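On clarity, I found the account of how folds are encoded harder to follow than it need be. Since the whole study asks how a given chain folds, the encoding of that fold should be made plain. For illustration, here is how one protein appears when written out as sequence plus structure tokens:

:::
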Amino acid sequence: MKCPHCGSTDDKVIETRTLAGGEGIRRRRQCLSCGYRFTSYERIEEKPLMVIKKSGRREPFERGKIEKGILRAVEKLPVSGKTIEELVNRIEERAALYDPIAREVPTSVLGDMVLEELKALDFVAYIRFASVYKNFRDLKAFLEEIGHIQKTNNVTR
């Protein structure tokens, strides 16, 4: 491991710890040339999770895109950052499990996962996200979605 202080590759491992869930290893190292101590991490390199767009094109999963859409949906609502983080974590985990061999998930499935999470979180956030995701063309389609949600969830807000 190259020392970030002096650039020497001569070091020794002082301490090794397994990260939460056994998904990686944290190692404390000391440079034998200058004595500088630093930390390195080892993780299993997995095939990246890919998203299949409507056009059939594939692109890497970007957690930030999911988070950005959710943030827009919950804007000005009493939803904590921690709640949003947990919601995004659940969606990312479910997406990775959708097809664990190919590690691919269609955008339509991702959108449905976000809708499910928002439905359980907040009705207004759900409707905001649905209005963009489902691309309502007119007021009738929007009102039908609200009616459907009210019937299935007994929402009286």
The radius of gyration is 22 Å. The CA atoms of residues 127 and 146 lie 7 Å apart.
